[in-house]
Design goal:
Residues 165-180 have a biased composition (Acidic residues). Residues 76-144 form the HMG box domain. One of its GO terms (molecular function) is DNA binding. Residues 134-164 have a biased composition (Basic and acidic residues). This protein is an all-alpha fold. Among the domains are: 4-60, no CATH class; 82-148, DNA Binding (I), subunit A. The protein contains seven helices and no strands. Helix 1 (4-19) crosses helix 3 and helix 4 crosses helix 5.
Amino acid sequence: MPSLCRLAGKNIKRKIQKSLSNLQNFPSALRGGRQCLGKKSKFDEIAKVDKVHYDQKMKDYGPAKGGKKKKGPNVPKRPLSGCFLFCSEFCPKIKSTNSGIYIGDVAKKLGEMWTNLSDSKKQPYITKAAKLKEKNQKDVADYKSKGKLDGTKDPAKVAQKKVEEEDEEEDEEEEQEEDE
């Protein structure tokens, strides 16, 4: 929806573009543009019409159906990487040696320690992360083979069931009225 200022700016821009062909008229075109801003009523009317048009379009617009899929409560979480395993081991040590240190500073120190660590010293953390990744892949495969668990339902199916239940209730009410 264009604002009052934007509409006035478009009007001024047109005038300036016309005067650019003759640069002698350029300063007068700028003055004319500023004078145009004083005539607010013209732009107010245009803005009101545009607002009505915008409101009508927004009335028809609706959010996407179905929404975002929700993860089930039993979905296996992603495993930690080698760096995070290293950080979880050394974070308490850094906090105890540097009391009152901010968490951001702890993270910076841990990052520096990890980058300065040799590959041979990183290897135990990386192998442990690989084992956790394999275990996670098995857990995910088991989860997917079992299907949806513990009341996790597709939002579209839930909405469809509600509509079907309402239709059944209406049908029952109509049958009761016909019997009477």
